[in-house]
Write a structure and sequence with these properties.
Elements lengths: L1 E3 L1 H8 L8 E4 L1 E2 L2 E2 L4 E5 L3 H8 L5 E5 L5 H17 L6
Antiparallel strand pairs: 1-5, 2-5, 2-6, 3-4
C-alpha cells in the first residue's frame, strides 16, 4: 500500500473485514511523513513480519467492524505524534 492521509486510510478501513484487515504504521523504515500514515493489507507476509518484529511504529490492525470515531481518533493521535517528532521526512 502506501503513505496516505487519514481520510484515505479510513476509506480503506471501511472495506476491510476482520479476516482481511488494514495494518497502519507511523513509518516504514526510516521514512516517516509528517501528515500521513502508512496503510497496508494486514495479512501479507511482509506486514505480518513487521508486526511480529514490532517494526515501523505499528499502530493496529483495523477493520470495518470497529467504531469509526475511535478509529479516526487513533489515526489523528498517530499523526500528531509524527508531527511532534523530528524524524519525519517531507
Amino acid at each position: 500500500m502506501s503513505f496516505s492521509n487519514i481520510e484515505i486510510i479510513i476509506s480503506r478501513i471501511a472495506t476491510a473485514t476482520p479476516e482481511q484487515p488494514i495494518a497502519v504504521f507511523r513509518c516504514v523504515g526510516s521514512l516517516c511523513k509528517k501528515n500521513q500514515l502508512f496503510a497496508s493489507f494486514g495479512n501479507t507476509v511482509i506486514t505480518q513480519a513487521w508486526i511480529r518484529n514490532n517494526q515501523n511504529k505499528f499502530l493496529l490492525l483495523f477493520d470495518n467492524t470497529m467504531n469509526k470515531d475511535n478509529v479516526r481518533a487513533m489515526l489523528k493521535e498517530a499523526v500528531e505524534l509524527n508531527r511532534r517528532e523530528e524524524f519525519w521526512t517531507k
